[in-house]
Amino acid sequence: TYTFCCRHTVTLIPGDGIGPELLSHVREVFRYSCVPVDFEVVHVNSALASQDDMDNAITAIRRNGVALKGNIETKHTLPPSVKSRNNILRTSLDLYANVMHCQSLSGVQTRHKNIDIMIIRENTEGEYSNLEHESVSGVVESLKIITRNNSLRIAEYAFKLAREKGRRRVTAVHKANIMKLGDGLFLQCCKEVASGYPDITFDSMIVDNTTMQLVSKPQQFDVMVMPNLYGNVVSNVCAGLVGGPGLVPGANYGRDYAVFETATRNTGKSIAGRNIANPTAMLLASCMMLDHLKLNDYASLIRNGVLTTMNETRVVAHSRYWGLGTTSDVVQSVMKNIQSKGQLTAEL
Amino acid sequence: MEYVGNLHLLLRRFCTLVFSHNAFTYRCLSGMQTVTLIPGDGIGPEISTAVMKIFEAAKAPIQWEERNVTAIQGPGGKWMIPPDAKESMDKNKMGLKGPLKTPIAAGHPSMNLLLRKTFDLYANVRPCMSIEGYKTPYTDVDLVTIRENTEGEYSGIEHIIVDGVVQSIKLITETASKRIAEYAFEYARNNQRTSVTAVHKANIMRMSDGLFLRKCREVAENYKDVKFREMYLDTVCLNMVQDPTQFDVLVMPNLYGDILSDLCAGLIGGLGVTPSGNIGANGVAIFESVHGTAPDIAGLDMANPTALLLSAVMMLRHMGLHAYADKIQIACFDTIKDKKVLTGDLGGKSKCSEFTGEICRRVQDME
């Protein structure tokens, strides 16, 4: 990262929908907590077909090394040649590992309790390879690419993280009974890497069975590793199980760069601008970012503030499960909890 | 004996075939309708026997023609299902199938895939309804997943481009997408369902899922009485596990259908209690249990026949035999609700034969 006088500069991409408002709350909390991070804001206009905005954003992230982003909408009115901007960002920066930690929060009412799952999703290839063509009119082929290199890489990442965090088991999710070559290769790579980690149990599960197991006995899962699309499904199922898209942060790691966002990457168009979006996920994502920048004290400070709000004070944002607090209410409560820790903070 | 056999054949020749809108009714002088039965592997044979017993107890006018579908290699090395099985299905149109083995990374294609290709079983229909008496964290689930079953990610076309690089091809065609969309809306209309949701990932797979979505939108125009929604696969997953009651009929390409239909089965209690039907071209329909072969309990009289039974009930409804369908379904659900005679997977200690016997008893008591 680019630092000057112990301050870090981070690229901020507001995105669409609820992105801008959530990120402005993050900045508010950072200012209040005197976090030594400066944001370089880069806007991406999703309505334009031109790549210029994305190129600027990618250049900025290359410069700063770290980014915090909202989701950029993919407009279906634009021609298919205009790919998902979020996807372009991930592949250009080779952010090969998408990491999501799904944990049950004691203050959140859900059908399942005691969930603690780490999901590691291959983030650059698979079904998201953006290779499609219409062979003849009305017949479209979409290519799913699985490579040995990327499969080994993500498996290595998963096992290393599992060991680092003291986790016991890694489960590979696949559909190798049908996609024998593609997912077969992925599975084989996972097995190879697993042999180098005898302290960690390795098993595998077919994706449809996985979703079924998740909705009946999610507590059985520890760390899960999978190709891109299954990762999309499994992370959304898990986020739903622990209380919804407003709670879970996500991180995208590459060798040289890291981009943080909400885990389920929702644009949230229908709730944008109404002060009802849950800021928890984005705030926790910003804490993950602070940890990445080695600003661990600030990360813990804000994270504890958020979790205290979630678990104890019950001031929660609007949701079908909870009361009717606003986004601002939650943010105020977080800042109060931060202040009560006795840290030096700015005037409210 | 031969004379009786010939007479029976003669009677069948005088039968009339009546096609109604969504039910296939085979009126026959003898009153019996023949269904191709594929017991399958593992626990397949014992649960098939259970279903046959229950149907007999209910005096359902079904006679079973058992066939095996283990893949064989025809001339030219092409894998196919045995010709006598194909002949039987083409003749009878209705089939009931138990679980089949699908080995990982073996030489031949999945048997289920082969069946689908042979009979052009283009629509997989799975109604998921919460079963009273079998508690899960989710209540009031009442949705139907309709999955395109012939193409998509399961086209079976894969290549090793260079060592270490594999390409799997997902195929989406206009014809198949239109066909499944039409089936979904027809189903919704005929079964008094209020909405159809198209599930896709057209933000990422712009051309393929984009085509699928376009076809759904076009078909929706002809069914203004049914509400049409479109939702990203991940959003559906996210919302499904939080509040499944917001969903009604879901239509989607192959892989998403596979994942979502199993997810929904999980909501109501698993594959052991979920029915499934495959609708094909030319009036063919094969109903099946979608659980595995459970080789660890095969032959031990421990299996739960509910899934196959409910699929058979789905078949009866498809054939227009609603009275028999209701009778058997009620007997099955009452047995589960009563909780006295349940197989191991349902939380009880009874044998498969005891569970079956209990349902038979209830069916007979209803006479």
Structure, explained:
- The complex is a heterodimer of chains A (348) and B (367).
- With 348 residues, chain A is of the alpha/beta class.
- Helices cover 39% and strands 21% of the residues of chain A.
- Chain A has 10 helices and 13 strands.
- Chain A has helices spanning 19-32, 52-64, 85-92, 148-164, 182-194, 207-216, 228-242, 280-292, 296-313, 327-339; strands at 3-4, 7-13, 37-41, 66-69, 97-103, 116-122, 132-136, 139-147, 169-174, 201-206, 223-226, 249-253, 258-262.
- In chain A, strands 1, 2, 3, 4, 5, 6, 9, 10, 11, 12 and 13 form an 11-stranded mixed β-sheet that branches. Chain A has a two-stranded antiparallel sheet with strand order 7-8.
- In chain A, helix 5 (182-194) links the parallel strand 9 (169-174) and strand 10.
- In chain A, helix 8 (280-292) packs antiparallel against helix 9 (296-313).
- By secondary structure, chain B is α/β, with parallel strands linked by helices.
- Chain B is 39% helix and 23% strand.
- Chain B contains 11 helices and 16 strands.
- In chain B, the strands form 4 sheets. Chain B has a 10-stranded mixed β-sheet with strand order 4-3-7-16-15-8-9-14-12-13, sandwiched between helices. Chain B has a two-stranded antiparallel sheet with strand order 1-2.
- In chain B, helix 2 packs across helix 9, helix 2 (44-57) runs parallel beside helix 11 (352-365) and helix 5 (174-190) crosses helix 6.
- The longest helix of chain B has 17 residues, at 174-190.
- Chain B is globular and about 55 Å long.
- The interface between A and B is large, with 64 and 61 residues.
- Chain B: Keywords: Magnesium, Metal-binding, Mitochondrion, NAD, Oxidoreductase, Transit peptide, Tricarboxylic acid cycle.
- Chain B: This is Isocitrate dehydrogenase [NAD] subunit, mitochondrial.
- Chain B: One of its GO terms (molecular function) is magnesium ion binding.
- Chain B: Its cofactor is Mg(2+); Mn(2+).
- Chain B: Its main location: mitochondrion.
